[in-house]
Amino acid sequence: MSTEHRREILVGIDGSDGSAAALRWAYETAQIEKRPVTALLGWTADGLPRPVYEAAVAANHHALTEAATEQLERIIARIPAPVPPVELRKLVVNQDPVEALVAAAKNAEMTVVGQRGAGLVHRILAGSVAHRLLHHSSGPVVVVRGTAPDTGDAPDRRPIIVGVDGSEPSQAAVRWAAARAQERGVALHLVHGYRIDITTFGVPVPDFYPSLRTGSEQLLKDVATADLDDESTVQVSLDAVDDSASHALLQAAEQAQLLVVGTRGRGGFAELVLGSTAHQCVLHAACPVAVIHA
């Protein structure tokens, strides 16, 4: 199938192992969804990715541009070209990486970036590309985490998990996750963690917590009815979990190929410090995490 009229998958490259993993995931997704891939490396003289800085032979614009291009080519060379081949566009821009990705993402189906692992909390507070992108991009952002199982030539049959809370962003996440599950031919698990640590406001304890579960189960049914296509062939399960939203999703993600969550995208330092469900998932999930903005 031609990729001519299908929106691209945009990948942020910075020379790190994380960006190599992001490109590998983008290739695999592009094969499934028949999409082109754009690998983008953004750089500025005062904020170079370290591999670009180390590769530069001089501190002038031409040398830095050559070093940035070399790093992009080096990452691409590390990842085996998919078979059948995927249409790949390479883009090196003298611009802040997040600003470059946000601008390019306007024409993309999704933006994919890596997660570096060690020292992540420091990078979040300092403003990593992945977490800055989550705040500034209006489209889907996939942060590639974890290690995919070696299935050889067999497709990954693990399910896709999506967090549900009844908000508009989570409904958008359900629709986006359902489309991915349909393309891959895998199950879709809708998960709602309903545990809350608050007073029961005078309601007898034996009545209060069962009512939470009943409400959670009804919420899942309502969302499935409203946001899933009746003609879809995707196998769907509705999981009301007596746990916090973050922990319920992280537990489910241990056996998943992708975790999808919605976010209102309000951003700000307070959200990072306090830890929204989306940010907890990006920090700790055992698989790639897609963050969907309403």
Walk me through the structure.
The chain has 294 residues and is α/β, with parallel strands linked by helices. It has helices at 17-33, 50-55, 61-78, 97-104, 120-126, 129-136, 168-184, 205-227, 245-253, 269-274, 277-284, and strands at residues 8-12, 37-42, 88-93, 108-114, 141-144, 160-163, 188-193, 236-241, 258-263, 289-293. Strands 3-2-1-4-5-10-9-6-7-8 form a ten-stranded mixed sheet, with helices on both faces. Helix 7 (168-184) links the parallel strand 6 and strand 7 (188-193). Helix 4 packs across helix 6 and helix 9 (245-253) runs parallel beside helix 11 (277-284). The two termini are 30 Å apart.
CATH architecture of the largest domain: 3-Layer(aba) Sandwich
- Main sheet specs: 10 strands, mixed
Which percent range describes the beta-strand content? 15-25%
> Uncertain segments of ≥5 residues (pLDDT<50)?
117-127, 265-275
Please give the number of β-strands: 10
Question: So, the CATH homologous superfamily of the largest domain?
Answer: HUPs
How much is the average pLDDT? 85
Please tell me what the overall shape is. Answer: globular
Number of domains: 2
Question: What integer value in Å does the Rg equal?
Answer: 20 Å
Q: Which sequence of strands runs across the widest sheet? A: 3-2-1-4-5-10-9-6-7-8
Q: Per CATH, what is the topology of the largest domain?
A: Rossmann fold
Structural classification: alpha/beta
C-alpha termini separation: 30 Å
Order of helices and strands: EHEHHEHEHHEEHEHEHEHHE
Structure annotation, total helices: 11
